[in-house]
What we know:
By secondary structure, the protein is of the alpha/beta class.
Amino acid sequence: TIKLSARVQxxxxxxxxxxxxxxxxxxxxxxxxxxxxxxxxxxxTPDHIKQAAIAAINEGFTKYTAVDGTPELKRAxxxxxxxxxxxxxxxxxxxxxxxxxxxxxxxxxxLLDPGDEVVIPAPYWVSYPDMVLLAGGKPVIVDAGAxxxxxxxxxxxxxxxxxxxxxxxxxxPSNPTGMAYGKAELxxxxxxxxxxxNALIATDDMYEHIRWDTATPFANILNAxxxxxxxxxxxNGVSKAYSMTGWRIGxxxxxxxxxxxxxxxxxxxxxxxxxxxxxxxxxxxxxxQDCIGEMLTAFKERHDFVVEALNVIPxxxxxxxxxxxxxxxEVSGLIDRLDGVGNDLELAEYLIEQAGVAxxxxxxxxxxxxxRISIATSRDNLEQAMQRIAAVAG
Length: 394
Ligand code: PLP
């Protein structure tokens, strides 16, 4: 056998991608499986965005660009941060990367030395802990269950902070729970962070636009605590808002020193993000924004349906969410009802084999006894899937 690095052996492949692959495999084998694992909108990329990319190809915009993104896209990102978030950045405070995933990867590589701690609230996006491990850091997981709407409290954050804390991650609205922190909750977290000036903060705003309460403006930690600006990285991207997951464009705004270090990591790994995708992302950020509203309406309708349907299934309890295209029901009662099913992983296997429904077990996100259901699929599929789960629940 070939010896692999300790680094790579310390991480696992993405569980969500594994479930999606398993569902596809079963479908290809002719089995009737409804996939509720998807981490991407089920809508097509809006046409004006595609047309911008096609024009870029035809005009020969197909070569290397600046590592940190084209000046035009960086300008569009700066304008977006100004328009949507009330944040002011200079070009040297912006880095465009190959997806939001690479933004966080660059950050972990730029920041962490062996033993450095990163505070990650659970349930978490599957990739945070593993990217921290790949960088030699130590994930410090802070648990938040349904009773606290899957959000950590200021007291919990304080208890998790140490002299070695280098980074604190906030993802709101959250993948997988769909919950968003309010401004007052962020202010309380910020008050704790003020006592730890050596810790940086990453706010992952990827689902910023997918929120039901459109009357209240989106807020991240910097809106609540502007004094934390010089140590906060704002991470965002076009993947979820504009249904552009395959284009691989994410971006970060933050202190020039950190952005420069992240850019150095990127310059030695991928170089610039795809030139054509950058033109498309610019069109997304600068063009009409009504495509977001159309998706939002569909997601909200499906959310309302699924939450209600889940809550009448014996052994399942589901909180209504604040946004995203996920719901995160507690399924421990259902696990108890099913013979031979002892945990959420076994439940996911049982449902895929016995009910033809693929969902992701909560333990993949750091919380046993729950499951993530993606509503980024048709109403028809959702109705069928709910009937199938209800049928096995008895
Ligand atoms: N952050 C969160 C919370 C996510 O859920 C995702 C995608 O699943 C990402 C970042 C990264 O998205 P991408 O790399 O596709 O831009």
